[in-house]
């Protein structure tokens, strides 16, 4: 963890802020650091207390996360209810919100009001990989903790050491910086299947739009939840980024190194404008998914608009 020494210094100097915004591209590292921070605030290294925090059952600690595209209103309401109570076992109360950018506007405004007038001895740790999607007023009420970008090469090596193949590790490094999420995606070969579907759709989008439209039925069967659909589009975007790099002959880390020859050949039949347009329509599709537009309609429009 990058910041444990700085955290220890803050604690020893008793210079705690009421809110911290953790920002970076490695959610795994931010989660680990935030949990360490919470343990030190609540427990002062007392082991039985630390175990309670690690198991998310400390009465003065709340950890909010969601596998869906948004954090539910009920989760925030329950958080605020608990944080408005007095501490039970510790001097402080601490709450962590993972992927703070998943809050709805209503949820973000509720937290904003809470940050403006926090109860005594209450500390917020807000984690995000998308700080530009968070209200500026939230930024202004938090102490920013910036995590340096993770080395993609090191991350790929970590995934490979965990038993993930080199090709899959490369693609995962372009779609998630969370090692736990990467490992979970590969446990049941889910990402392997999704990746094959992505590469087939990408080829059809370039070569045969009509067949690409038909193949979308299979794509939706694989990417059958909103998180998987966003992962699908991020993987598709990474494929066209590889096409772009092949077209302009940039030697960089590839999302699909096992398809390098095929991607180079496809790039010869496309102009830079063609590739840029594909990337643009994929980005727009991802934006619409985040707004809960029907996934089938979003993907159909993406395929149609990609081939101009």
Task: Give a verbal description of the structure.
By secondary structure, the chain is α/β, with parallel strands linked by helices. The protein is built from 15 helices and five strands. It has helices at 4-13, 27-43, 47-54, 73-83, 105-116, 136-140, 152-161, 166-175, 179-187, 190-207, 209-222, 226-247, 260-267, 272-290, 295-306, and strands at 19-23, 61-64, 93-97, 122-128, 143-146. It has a five-stranded parallel beta sheet, sandwiched between helices. One of its GO terms (biological process) is DNA-templated DNA replication. This is DNA polymerase III subunit delta. It comes from Mammaliicoccus sciuri.
Short description:
With 308 residues, the chain is an alpha/beta fold. It is built from 15 helices and 5 strands.
List keywords for this structure.
single chain, 308 residues, alpha/beta, five-stranded parallel sheet, 15 helices
Strand content: 5-15%
List low-pLDDT spans.
none
Major sheet attributes? 5 strands, parallel
By secondary-structure content and strand pairing, the structural class works out as alpha/beta
User: Percent range for helical residues?
Assistant: 55-70%
**N→C terminal distance:** 47 Å
| Spatial strand arrangement across the major sheet | 2-3-4-1-5
Q: How many helical stretches?
A: 15
Order of helices and strands: HEHHEHEHEHEHHHHHHHHH
Oligomeric status? single chain
Radius of gyration: 22 Å
What's the topology here?
Elements: H1 4-13, E1 19-23, H2 27-43, H3 47-54, E2 61-64, H4 73-83, E3 93-97, H5 105-116, E4 122-128, H6 136-140, E5 143-146, H7 152-161, H8 166-175, H9 179-187, H10 190-207, H11 209-222, H12 226-247, H13 260-267, H14 272-290, H15 295-306
Parallel strand pairs: 1-4, 1-5, 2-3, 3-4
Helix pairs in contact: 1-2, 2-3, 7-8, 8-12, 10-11, 10-12, 11-15, 12-13, 12-14, 14-15
